[in-house]
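Batch manifest line 450
LIGAND: uridine-5'-diphosphate-xylopyranose
JOB: complex structure
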Amino acid sequence: MEKHEADEKTHIVIIPFPVQGHINPMLQFSKRLASKGLRVTLLTTTSNKESLQSETNGVIVESISNNLDVASIEALVDRFKTVASQSLPEIIAKYGASGYPVSCLVYDSVMPWALDIAKQLGLTGASFFTQACAVGAIYCNIQRGLLSLPLEGTTVSIAGLPTLSISDLPSFVYDRESYPSLVDRVLDRFSNVDQADWIFFNTFDHLEEEVVNWMASQWPIKTIGPTIPSMYLDKRLTDDKDYGLSLFKPDAAACMNWLDNKQIGSVVYVSFGSLANLGEEQMDELACGLMRSNNYFLWVVRASEGSKLPSNLKAETSEKGLVVNWCPQLEVLSHQAVGCFMTHCGWNSTLEALSLGVPMVAMPQWTDQTTNAKFVVDVWQAGVRVKVNEKGIVGREEIEVCIKEVMEGERGKELKRNAVKWKVLAKEAVDEGGSSDKNIEDFVSKILCT
Ligand code: UDX
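JOB STATUS: finished
ARTIFACT:
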């Protein structure tokens, strides 16, 4: 791979929204830029910084604000804006004074205020979308009035996308009562995006071809994903193993030792990411469904969710299951014992499963997950989706049936084959000369010339 001359003066600052699912892809992108000879500083909150090494694979990590003690995502969006928009210009000025002037600010697309700061300071501004291009296109259509809210009818047609049921749209769109203010905050990312010099999506061209083409006809967007450390995509490589950040403490040895003793494709890996909260009844049905499927299962239940586990589920000690608070997900998905991923379809989890060739049982909870689940089943054909019953939960029989569909029989084999097809294409995209690699190279060479 072509290496650029290391130029300490070419300094990029990267600022993700400070939650796990947004930091992971932006940190990986930072590492990729650092590996190409740029000086890269990632800014995050003090407590997140404590979970990271101060320098991880060439990326310098710095704290931009104190810990933000807030009760909701809406409040976090607002609080981070207030705090970080004050300190960001000061930090950038400090770098300039200490001989490391900043040329470019890569900001999480949910923080459009950061682009205003970049422009005021005369910096190149790059917006980073941590969600699927399809999801970006849906929000873009709403923001431009091409799709009006409240929605009417049962389906919607959007350029570059298959026909979508209302419930396939992001939940902020069809369930505005539950999330009255979130949709506005999410749409805000388009308010100034015309002024961005670069717009990155953590996806790859083959995966979302039509919608990527449509978005590219609106803005000069660039796909740069999947942002997964290359050693997971190519077993011959030995670069760094982690995402470099876990806001939760993983039980790595316990998970990997347990998986090592299981046969190929015999384990269902279950996780709902870093934010989703399942109700107690749903946890009960899930536990029963997993037991009924009669497969081994590795279930991530965050400590804050632990009290909802049914008391009769002695999964930790049962022969069939292991319950942990957090795991090294990429290592788990890469393990040959894992046959299926029961997932909430957060964008990172979806992309990770596809890139590592693991078929899915999609159980979306909120935000973009409903749209991702639609694509997993109908477009990428790499999984099945559970049906929600009249009580608004997914029953144990349904869970059992869906798991068996993925783990067993001809259908299971077909889903696995499809998942592996995406794994091959994901690797091609990030390999030297692949679509995402070329886009990153192009960005780096232009930044080095500014
Ligand atoms: C959030 C949103 O919920 C999601 O829909 C959006 O697309 C991104 O932001 P989150 O719910 O945490 O993210 O899900 P996801 O996007 O899947 O990100 C979770 C990350 O944590 C993944 O990178 C995954 O590998 C990692 N993880 C998860 C672990 O490392 N260990 C675990 O045990 C669980």
